[in-house]
Structures are given as structure tokens and as C-alpha cells.
Amino acid sequence: MYWDNQKLFKETQKALVNNNYSGVSLFLGIANSSMIEGIDTIKIKEDTTKSLLAVQMRSLFELRDYISNNKQNQLKFAYRYYSNDSHASVPLIAEYDAFHVIFNYYPFKLSYNDYSNVNQALISKIENHFENVSKQMGYKVKPPEDMVNSFGYVALNSKNYDDAIYIFKLNVKNYPESYNVYDSIGEFYEARGDKAYAIDSYKKALLIKEVPYTRQKLEKLQGK
Predict the structure, then answer these.
(1) Residue pair 102/25 in contact by the 8 Å Cβ criterion
(2) Is residue 86 predicted with pLDDT exceeding 90?
(3) Cβ atoms within 10 A of the Cβ of 135, count?
(4) Domain 112-221: CATH superfamily, name plus number
(5) Do the beta carbons of residue 118 and residue 139 sit within 8 Å?
(6) Which among 34, 58, 106, 189 could disulfide-bond with 197, CB atoms 3.0 to 4.6 Å apart, if both were Cys?
(7) Distance CA 69, CA 177 (A)
């Protein structure tokens, strides 16, 4: 940003004014490259020394301030000043922090109650979260099969049959090539006494993968 009388900084200013960056994220990691003892984000801007490192740091803070004060371009921006890191040590930790900032929408947070009380509110929470993740990522991101499956069994064991069948069918829709989704929905139908549907589901599971336990359940229902 400081090079050639701030040539790149000036080009960046024009780009941020003239372009729209909706859907784009930028994390700026600033190291204490000046190596001046006791320097902080306030003092560096007041510093008037002409050393290359001090000039470089001031240019980075100018960039930070310019982006922070010009939000019309819709750029998702965050920064962090690493007072105890140098130019050499900052990349790894800054990259880690950047992932947390850029993908802050990705983690799916559940409460203790969510694991034991499966209901429509939780189902909506799951679907809305992964719909938002898909929108942010630009491609379809499905709820993890194992997670959804476990919630299906929680609902089934609680005799919450309406939500259980919805959840198991959601997994079948999202993972039609998985034997386990058919095996699980087969157990739902078996628990509900829907023998024909259970047999059909177990057969579908076995067409994908031969699993002894699934075969045993099918043969038991068939009276073999």
C-alpha cells in the first residue's frame, strides 16, 4: 500500500468507489512490522518517522480507515491488528482469523435442548441455516446426513411421528444414494407398524449396499 507513493492504495480507493463488492469478503491482517516498542493503532498514525516500516504500517491503517468509512460498495470487511506479530509471523494466525470472519455464517449452533427436543422449530432452524449457507457459498450445501438422521431417531424415540417422518424423508431427498437413509426410514415404518413400507425401504437400502443387519430385519418382516 505504501509502494511508489501509495500507488496501489490510490488504485484501491478508486476501485472501492466505482465497483460493487456484494458477496465479497476482505480480511486485513496488520502486523506490528514497525517493531517500535509500545506502538499501537493510535500511536502509529501519530508517528512521523520516515522509516520504511513505519510508512508501510501507516499506509495499511489508512487502507483500513478508508474501507471502514466507505461502505457503499457492500464489501464485507474486517481487520485485526497483531501487536505481537511481525511480518514473518502474522500470515498463519491472520489466515485462521480470516476464515472465522469470512465464514462466520457457516457454523450451525445448537443448544442442549435442541438435541433432546426435536420439533418443527428445530427443523426450520436446520433448513433455514443450510439455505443461508448455500446462498452464501453459491452452491447447494445439504444438512449433514448423520446429524439429520440422529434427530430423526430422537423424534421417533419420543413418539413424535410427524416430525420423525419429515426428517427421515428429508434425508432420503438429500441423500438418495445412501443405503442408510432407507434403512432408517424403514425402521420408522417398522416402528409404526407399516410393514409394506418398511419392507420396501429395506429392499431399497439393500440394493445400494448389502448390510447383514438390514437383511435380517427384512427377512424377519418377510417371515423367513
Answers:
(1) yes
(2) no
(3) 13
(4) Tetratricopeptide repeat domain (1.25.40.10)
(5) no
(6) 189
(7) 50
